[in-house]
Amino acid sequence: MKTSQAAQRLCLGAALALCACATVPQPSNDAIRDAGNLVAQAEDARASDYAPQEMRAAREKLQAALELSRQARNSNDSAGLVRSRWLAEEAAADARLAEARAQASRMQGLLRARQRELGPPPTPANGSQP
Amino acid sequence: MKHALLWIAAALALSACWHGAVKDPGADKARAELNRLEADPQLAGRVPVAIREAEEAVKAAEAPQKDADLSSYLVYIADRKVQTARALAEARIAEDELKGLGGP
Q1: Engineered SS bond to A72: which of A12, A43, A77, B68, CB 3.0-4.6 Å?
Q2: Domains in chain B: how many in total?
Q3: Which residue range is the domain that position B50 belongs to?
């Protein structure tokens, strides 16, 4: 009986250890996935039209992060993994900036168009006084 | 009290130097840009969350680091967050003006 319980505990421990291994957070992968999502979101918002430099930087850094991560995993290079995470986070920051600049440019364009539609504001000389 | 704080700050800075940690000069630029943004009431009041995030990133970038790559990364993130906060604030200003003119 005791042997059976011990075996069960051993199996449970092994299963938990396996689960733990399988779910060990991979910060580099998480950061790369997040950066990929942000770059895609910025592309959808047409950020490349308004902030091409930032979008190019975001794409290049994301690509560099992916390559460095792959190399670091193949060579068990933990410092390389950390650096790939930094690159991914820089790519994410570039994508956020590109999207914010695109939003600002779009709004400023709409505002200028609306101001043109309405014409110049009335002055005392041509105001609405009879 | 003020003198004591100055001495502590000097001791910490000296200790950081002895241990080979240095502050990236880019952190000062990010701090200056954040200060300009915060000093503009029209901009700063519109994006408090983005400014708080930028403030945290600038603080992290200001801490002396031994690893030059880590330092560069922290400065890069701080700079981008400050610029993002400014762009978001500019977008909000245009959006509010547009609403005031009965735009979409």
Answers
A1: A77
A2: 1
A3: 23-100
Which residues partner with B65 through β-bridges? Answer: B22
Decide: A60 and A116 in contact? Cβ < 8 Å: no
A103 at the B interface (CB within 8 A)? yes
- Give the global pTM: 0.77
Neighboring chain B residues of A90 at a CB cutoff of 8 Å:
73, 76-77, 80
Quick check: is B7 in a domain?
no
Q: pLDDT tens-digit profile of A18-29? A: 333 343 445 678
Mutate to test the interface with B, among A110, A112, A115, A117 (most CBs of B within 10 A): A110
Give CA separation, B27 vs A36, A73, A74, A98, A103, in Å.
27, 32, 34, 21, 27
Which tens digit of pLDDT belongs to each residue from B59-77? 999 999 999 999 999 999 9
- Asked if B64 reaches chain A (Cβ–Cβ under 8 Å), the answer is no
